[in-house]
Amino acid sequence: MSLKSSLRAQLLALQTGSLVLILAIALACFAFLSAGMQAYRGLLDGPIQASQLADEINLEFKIQVQEWKNVLLRGQDRANLDRYWGQFETQERKIQELLARLANADGTDAALRQQVERLRSEHQSLGSAYRKGRDAFLAAGADPQAGDAAVKGIDRATTEQLSALVDELHGISDSQAEIINQRAQSTILWGSLLMLASAVLVG
């Protein structure tokens, strides 16, 4: 074999090897980015979904408290009393169902599940307190002040716990999203640098 042919074969082998290396780097980058997409999918199905549930629970609880205020303000009429109290109980059941879903949602760890279950139990106790308030309201001849005094401040602790839960879940979602984003950016950066270095080598 002549020297010219030998050099040509070596150059061809070098170019082929470099191109194979670039292809391998590209495939590795795609694999890492695909894993990042799966991680984003897990984030959507886990912490973000839990955050949305917590936001919904917080909103529904505010509606429940508003329905109680409607009972006090408009409950002198029996039809209105039955209407708004029925809506209050509907909200109460809805919140209990949402809390149960949150406790069993994907990505809910043991500590968070325990926190949600405790909140669910306290919300049930809150319902009992509101029923005593309704009894006081009716016993006082549908006096709003009597009903309000009977339950004054009882929703504060639940409201604070719900707000804390919402903030915690949003914090978890934001933290995990930032980690996934940093990994994806690192993969793109290093993959691009390695492919550029391989291209220079081929040149």
How would you summarize this macromolecular structure in one to three sentences?
It is built from five helices and no strands. The protein has helices spanning 3-74, 78-103, 110-139, 144-150, 156-202.
Layout of strands and helices, then pairs:
Blueprint: H1 3-74, H2 78-103, H3 110-139, H4 144-150, H5 156-202
Helix pairs in contact: 1-2, 1-4, 1-5, 2-3, 3-4, 3-5
What does this structure look like?
The protein has 203 residues and is mainly α. The protein has 5 helices and no strands. Helix 3 (110-139) runs antiparallel to helix 4 (144-150) and helix 3 (110-139) packs antiparallel against helix 5. The protein is rod-shaped. The two termini are 25 Å apart. The model has no long low-confidence stretch (mean pLDDT 81).
Beta-strand residue percentage: under 5%
Cα gyration radius (Å): 31 Å
Task: Specify the overall morphology.
Answer: rod-shaped
Enumerate the spans where pLDDT stays under 50 for 5 or more consecutive residues. none
Q: Helical stretch count? A: 5
Distance between the termini: 25 Å
> What is the chains' assembly state?
single chain
- Total number of β-strand segments? 0
- Structural class comes to mainly alpha
Helix-strand sequence? HHHHH
Largest sheet: none
Q: Could you tell me the mean pLDDT?
A: 81
Share of helical residues? over 70%
